[in-house]
Design brief:
664 residues, alpha+beta, 5-stranded mixed beta sheet, 4-stranded antiparallel beta sheet, 9% strand
């Protein structure tokens, strides 16, 4: 796929190779040479005349199992994969078209405020901004600065357009936050943030990015080199951490620019109140998490001087049935009629299963393509027979299944990484450190639509299983990243660029793919500081609700003192101090009082219930049920086994504790 620009917007259509882009020759060496000469003017440069000076050609490489050759061969895998994609799309007739509207002045910021749940700060609903005021009161200083910057832009635009509805004064919106907050909600001291003045070096020319990335390839060639473990701080806002780093180490940052070439072994520090994963929270709280993640990502990019632009598809022509070229949401709807509760497309699952049935030790897995004509015929047959259950999977060779999997990803009408955030994924490479790149990817994964996020997770877990067999299949994390990057990042903006910029863009997308694969186990974690902000929002909303209720009761001449007494003792009735009552409505032992100790974990509570002499409990396995924290300052949260119950009780003393089955 590639982007074509016109005066109305950006049009996405399938890739059409030009006359200069001929097929790769039969030999591997010839394929390397032709890829080098033709790829420069192919997919990434559709809107540009081929007049840019030619980059010095590299000699062709002979594929070898030698580890020493992997650093250079990895980029060659990228270009060969691109040529294979071009060949497979030569006979395509029907193309799906996506039109992405270029935002007008202020429109981008207005859309951003809507996506962040702050649309009632302007427009017709501006007269009732109470919920947004509660939301704003929980923001960190850098988050508030990001919001304020966008509100100012929208306000100026509305004044220029002479809109009739009320236009807010930014000073009114943020006055209370500025006066009342001496510390940020995550406990760190406030920092003054000058988002307009931050011009971090990450915006250097693309060629230097390529140089940096090539250094990374060399360093990563020896994967057996032990990497130092680094904790990821999830308790403090990522943007606040970036501010502190810039304030405390400006000279060091300048000196070490471009030298952060190794991939550290990041780990999550132990959190006694439990780690929260995507899927652990109720939908209402998850919605707040997404609002906060967008604001935090924007604040982080603002601090580091990186421009964050969202795009939106305003016109899209897609199929409403079938397998390939069907929107994920539509595909899941038809799949769920066959298998209720399905979260990942059935065809996607089956293709992965077929690849694994052939053995993940196969050399060149994912890199070696299936025959183009056979792939085309298999697609047509799958479209006709998959849902009928009459398709013969024995006829699908392993490399064919791998090609079909990549084809499925490429032919999605909108990219797996979403049109809205694809550009944000791409510019992650411009962040100065690997830790900040990881932080940005963490927030971007949270922001993906649920169907995209679940499918991406299944893909990355599969790719990791392929890499686990690298000794046999010769597919290291670098090789897999190079092969898969063109398939996930085919939706490219058709901006004019020279050859060095195109090479850098290719290296950059491969670098992001590398990070997604290597750190996928960390990326589905919701940072603790965001969960704490959700807790504070819930607490503030409950406080306002109680205040309104008391006022109502007073008007109705009820005994306010009696109400307050009942309200205070609701969660303490019949439960001694230091004891929690755990409910298990679906087990034979439906309730149990448990004494809190310093070492009591969620897994211990589960074990006590499941050890009871009960036919129901005996049929349950440990992973089928979980302990949930419900109510108080959180809607609902599934606890990980290593949650220390006393610490969590102190954080949320009004919660109820319930054991129930995990959702499918």
């Amino acid at each position: 796929m590639s982007w074509l620009s016109n005066s109305q917007g950006v049009v996405l259509t399938a890739y059409h190779p030009s006359g200069k882009d001929q097929a790769v020759g039969d030999s591997q060496a010839k394929g390397g040479e032709e890829a080098t000469s033709s790829r420069r003017h192919g997919h990434y440069n559709m809107n540009q005349e081929s007049t840019a000076p030619r980059v010095t050609e590299r000699p062709p490489f002979d594929r070898s199992s030698s580890q020493d050759s992997l650093d250079e061969l990895s980029m060659e895998d990228y270009w060969i994969e691109l040529e294979n994609i071009k060949k497979s799309s030569e006979n395509k007739q029907d193309q799906e078209v996506v039109v992405v509207k270029e935002p007008d002045e202020g429109e981008l910021e207005e859309e951003w405020l809507k996506e962040a749940g702050l649309s009632n700060l302007f427009g017709e609903s501006v007269d009732d901004p109470q919920e947004s005021m509660v939301f704003l009161s929980t923001l960190t200083r850098t988050q508030a600065a990001a919001v304020q910057k966008r509100v100012e832009t929208v306000s100026q635009t509305l004044r220029k357009k002479n809109k009739q509805h009320h236009i807010p004064d930014v000073r009114d919106i943020f006055a209370q936050q500025t006066e009342s907050k001496e510390k940020t909600p995550d406990g760190t001291e406030s920092q003054s943030v000058r988002t307009n003045e931050n011009k971090y070096e990450g915006k250097d020319d693309q060629a230097s990015s390529l140089i940096v990335y090539n250094k990374e390839l060399v360093n990563l060639a020896s994967e057996d080199t032990p990497a130092s473990e680094t904790d990821i701080n999830l308790e403090v806002s990522f943007a606040e951490q970036a501010v502190n780093q810039k304030e405390n180490a400006k000279d060091k940052t300048q000196k070490n620019k471009g030298c952060d070439t190794s991939l550290p072994s990041f780990r999550l520090p132990k959190d006694k109140t439990g780690t929260t994963k995507i899927g652990d929270l109720a939908s209402q709280d998850m919605k707040k998490v997404c609002y906060l993640a967008l604001i935090e990502l924007t604040a982080l990019y603002d601090v580091l001087g990186i421009e964050l632009k969202q795009h939106k598809a305003v016109k899209i022509k897609t199929k409403d049935s079938g397998l390939f070229g069907v929107p994920l949401a539509t595909l899941l709807e038809q799949d769920q009629r066959k298998v209720p509760g399905t979260r990942i497309p059935l065809i996607f699952q089956k293709l992965i299963s077929r690849i694994e049935e052939g053995g993940l030790e196969t050399e060149g897995l994912l890199r070696i393509p299936g025959a183009a004509m056979r792939i085309k015929n298999l697609c047509q047959e799958l479209e006709a027979k998959f849902y009928e259950g009459t398709f013969n999977w024995e006829s699908v060779k392993q490399h064919d299944a791998a090609s079909l999997l990549k084809l499925f990803i490429r032919e999605l009408p909108q990219p797996l990484l979403s049109i809205e955030y694809l550009k944000a994924f791409q510019v992650v490479q411009n962040l100065p450190s690997k830790k900040q790149q990881l932080q940005a990817l963490n927030l971007l994964v949270i922001l993906l639509p649920e169907a995209n996020r679940d499918t991406l997770k299944a893909l990355l877990e599969f790719l990791q299983r392929v890499i686990d067999n690298k000794e046999e299949n010769k597919m290291t994390v670098m090789n897999v990243a190079m092969v898969m990057a063109p398939n996930l990042f085919m939706y490219q903006l058709g901006l004019k660029a020279n050859e060095q910029q195109e090479l850098a863009k290719a290296a950059g997308t491969a670098n992001i793919m590398l990070l997604l694969i290597k750190y996928h186990k960390l990326l589905w974690t919701i940072p603790k500081f965001i969960v704490n902000q959700v807790r504070k929002q819930n607490t503030e909303n409950q406080r306002k609700d109680r205040k309104a209720m008391k006022k109502l009761l007073k008007k109705m001449a009820y005994d306010r003192e009696k109400y307050e007494k009942q309200d205070k003792s609701t969660n303490d009735a019949d439960v001694p101090q230091g004891v929690i009552r755990v409910q298990a409505p679906h087990l034979s032992k439906v309730s149990m009082a448990i004494q809190l100790t310093e070492e009591l974990k969620a897994s211990d509570v589960l074990a006590r219930f499941l050890s009871q002499e009960s036919d129901v409990a005996q049929t349950l396995k440990k992973g089928e049920v979980s302990l949930y924290e419900i109510g108080g300052n959180i809607g609902e949260r599934c606890l990980d086994d290593n949650t220390y119950m006393k610490d969590l009780y102190q954080l949320n003393p009004n919660a109820e504790w319930v054991i129930k089955s995990k959702p499918v």
